């Protein structure tokens, strides 16, 4: 037995929080590590103790075996859970933990090393009788040997890095004349990513499903599987949506695939949690792809259909205890679907994005699980994977789970940086996915670049923004007034009052008038049409609006200066009342304190401390809503402070410069 009472989680983000949650519930002392970029991260506060392991770059922190082992010693850790990513599939790290007298909550180092090399893993699986894709995994890596093997396999074929995954070192070849270039590019990419130029070739199974089987093994002779997950919805060979069970699975196919996965684990003397991944053709034939020797990102869908806590089972096995389960006791109940929220821009080939999370607020809908690693106010840095969390829905059947998850995404507020939130909603509502027909070609076939772009703000969006801004500003003025009865709000002796707003967002701008109507309604009109809007409820971050008889939910962030950000059904638009902006710039009496009239990016600063300026001189230029705005002096005087710096992101009201009018 390998009893331990303290666990260091050698990871960050949502998986660190996930492991800490179960470990604490089981009575273990939990320990965290963090880089300088993560000093204030949620996982650090969630643990009982934490240690800094280095600067922001992963190579100097989360990938530093020495730094992690030193932290384990400093914090008094007895066991280490590697999570996923980083060092979770490093045989070197597993052996270093063993040498340091630490229990690694994972498989044996030899199993990690074996399955970490695709060529050797495939050779072992063939020997064990596990179905494999026809291909070449020989030791002769000369171009001549690879070309000869490719001729025998035929096209289309996949060139893959033997030492890694995640789509790196991978090329699809549909014409043998393109093979030499693909070999060179894949080998170079593989060397940069994994330190090895070794490649394998496989017959390309076009438009397959990506189906994986969760396996578990203990040291007492038990190896079993916990059903499958369909992970076919991918971009750049990386998973985006996962579900359990697979929509086209049959009991007979599950039995065959599960048996193959169990045999794969037994063949390498496996222990702990692992995932055997297969390609499933439309003819029902399946082929071994690879084995991940760790907990998977998508493990929650298995937990939700089996009722098991996989982290709890990992800790049980790591201590040398039996799983306490038989294959017959594993039952799949209902359906679960998971989506991965990424800080990325789907319209720009899913390019990762950084930024500041101004607001994260999960949907209040029931039946959802949020495994998130972020919170309001957090910065998303460029140093780590862009995944910021996962949403998972369970229901008795697939369609209910799908609708519940789409609704949860629409009602969750994630404001402040570009994400794939709206794209995920579109995926869940695409007919091919709804009907359970998605393959690994789904995103490429159904979502060309034009379909991934966030739509421009519409007149309805602008009308909602204007109505909400009117109400918020009216209530703020009323709260600041003395002795004005609520009954007099929106009333004027001269008849209905019209308030003009020019609501701009992105390239769109709408000239609107807002007119109060009986019973609190607002008529928002423009030259292109009008909408009757009623605000049914209003909190600090959400409101329910009835527009032309239809109720919609909207999340928002309001800032002084006529700026309001709306989030409707996963689409975020930053609106600015351009009339308020002009009024702010033309304010007749100046204070000398020059503040940003809206959130934006400082493009240029034209003056320095000591400069003599006159009212109206351009001091700086800010870019907001894709437009450039000149910031001008509001008084004559001498510049005494300059806080604005080109490249700085500023918030509305943030001080930029100061002018002393006595100078």
> How many distinct beta strands?
39
- Radius of gyration from the CA trace? 29 Å
Give the overall pLDDT as a whole number. 92
CATH superfamily of the largest domain: ATP-grasp fold, B domain
Protein name: Biotin/lipoyl-binding protein
Cofactor: biotin
Keywords: ATP-binding, Biotin, Ligase, Nucleotide-binding
Pfam family, one: Biotin_carb_C
What does this structure look like?
This protein is an alpha+beta fold and 663 residues long. 27% of the residues lie in helices and 33% in strands. It has six domains: 6-105, Rossmann fold, CATH 3.40.50.20; 134-203, Dna Ligase, domain 1 (2-Layer Sandwich); 209-331, D-amino Acid Aminotransferase, Chain A, domain 1 (2-Layer Sandwich); 334-453, D-amino Acid Aminotransferase, Chain A, domain 1 (2-Layer Sandwich), CATH 3.30.470; 459-578, 2-Layer Sandwich (Glycoprotein, Type 4 Pilin); 587-660, OB fold (Dihydrolipoamide Acetyltransferase, E2P), CATH 2.40.50.100. It is built from 17 helices and 39 strands. The chain has an eight-stranded antiparallel sheet with strand order 14-13-10-11-12-15-22-20, with helices on both faces. The longest helix has 22 residues, at 459-480. The protein is globular. The chain starts with 5 loop residues before the first strand and ends with a strand. The model is unreliable at 583-587 (pLDDT under 50). InterPro entries: ATP-grasp, BC-like_N, Biotin_BS, Biotin_carboxylase_complex, Biotin_carboxylation_dom, Biotin_COase_C, Biotin_lipoyl, CPAse_ATP-bd. Pfam families: Biotin_carb_C, Biotin_carb_N, Biotin_lipoyl, CPSase_L_D2. Its cofactor is biotin.
């Amino acid at each position: 037995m390998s009893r331990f009472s303290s666990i260091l989680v050698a990871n960050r983000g949502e998986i660190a929080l996930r492991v800490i949650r179960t470990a604490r519930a089981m009575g273990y002392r939990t320990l965290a590590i963090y880089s300088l970029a993560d000093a204030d991260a949620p996982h650090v506060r969630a643990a009982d103790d934490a240690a800094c392991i280095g600067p922001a770059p992963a190579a100097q922190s989360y990938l530093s075996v020495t730094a992690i082992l030193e932290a384990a010693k400093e914090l008094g850790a007895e066991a280490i859970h590697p999570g996923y990513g980083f060092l979770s599939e490093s045989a070197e790290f597993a052996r270093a933990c063993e040498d340091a007298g630490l229990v690694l909550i994972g498989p044996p180092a030899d199993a990690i090393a074996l399955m970490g090399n695709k060529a050797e893993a495939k050779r072992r699986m063939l020997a064990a009788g596990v179905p494999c894709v026809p291909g070449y995994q020989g030791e002769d890596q000369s171009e001549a040997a690879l070309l000869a093997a490719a001729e025998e396999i035929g096209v289309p074929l996949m060139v893959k890095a033997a030492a890694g995954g995640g789509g790196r070192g991978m090329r699809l070849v549909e014409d043998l004349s393109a093979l030499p270039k693909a070999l060179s590019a894949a080998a170079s990419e593989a060397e940069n990513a994994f330190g090895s130029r070794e490649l394998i070739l496989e017959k390309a199974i076009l438009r397959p499903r990506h189906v994986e089987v969760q396996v578990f093994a203990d040291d007492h002779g038990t190896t079993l599987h916990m059903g499958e997950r369909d992970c076919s919805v991918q971009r750049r060979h990386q998973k985006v949506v996962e579900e359990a069970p697979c929509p086209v699975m049959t009991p007979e196919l599950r039995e065959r695939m599960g048996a193959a996965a169990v045999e794969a684990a037994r063949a390498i003397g496996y222990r702990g949690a692992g995932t055997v991944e297969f390609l499933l053709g439309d003819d029902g034939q399946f082929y071994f792809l690879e084995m991940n020797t760790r907990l998977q990102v998508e493990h929650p869908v298995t937990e939700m259909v089996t009722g098991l806590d996989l982290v709890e089972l990992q800790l049980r096995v790591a201590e040398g205890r039996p799983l306490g389960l038989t294959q017959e006791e594993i039952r799949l109940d209902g359906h679960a679907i998971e989506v991965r929220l990424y800080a990325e821009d789907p319209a720009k080939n899913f390019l990762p994005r950084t930024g500041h999370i101004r607001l994260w607020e999960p949907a209040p809908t029931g039946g959802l699980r949020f495994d998130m690693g972020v919170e309001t106010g957090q910065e998303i840095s460029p140093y780590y994977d862009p995944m910021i969390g996962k949403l998972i829905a369970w229901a008795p059947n697939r369609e209910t789970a799908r609708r519940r998850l789409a609704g949860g995404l629409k009602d969750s507020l994630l404001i402040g940086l570009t994400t794939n939130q709206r794209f995920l909603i579109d995926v869940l509502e695409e007919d091919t996915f709804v009907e359970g027909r998605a393959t690994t070609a789904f995103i490429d076939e159904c979502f060309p670049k034009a379909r991934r772009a966030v739509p421009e703000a519409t007149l309805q969006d602008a009308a909602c923004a204007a109505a909400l801004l009117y109400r918020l500003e009216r209530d703020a003025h009323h709260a600041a007034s003395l002795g004005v009865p609520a009954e007099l709000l929106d009333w004027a002796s001269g008849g209905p009052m019209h308030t003009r707003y020019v609501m701009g967002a992105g390239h769109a701008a709408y000239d609107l008038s807002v007119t109060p109507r009986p019973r609190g309604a607002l008529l928002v009109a423009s030259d292109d049409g009008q909408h009757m809007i009623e605000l049914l409820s209003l909190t600090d971050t959400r409101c329910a609006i009835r527009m032309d008889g239809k109720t919609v939910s909207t999340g928002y962030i309001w800032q002084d200066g006529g700026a309001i950000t709306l989030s409707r059904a996963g689409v975020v638009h930053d609106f600015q009342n351009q009339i308020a902006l002009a009024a702010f710039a033309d304010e007749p009496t100046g204070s000398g304190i020059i503040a940003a009239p809206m959130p934006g990016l400082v493009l240029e600063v034209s003056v320095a401390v000591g400069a003599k300026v006159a009212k109206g001189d351009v001091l700086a230029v800010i870019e907001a809503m894709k437009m450039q705005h000149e910031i001008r002096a509001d008084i004559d005087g001498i510049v005494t402070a300059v806080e604005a710096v080109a490249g700085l992101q500023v918030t509305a009201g943030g001080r930029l410069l100061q002018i002393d009018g006595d100078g």
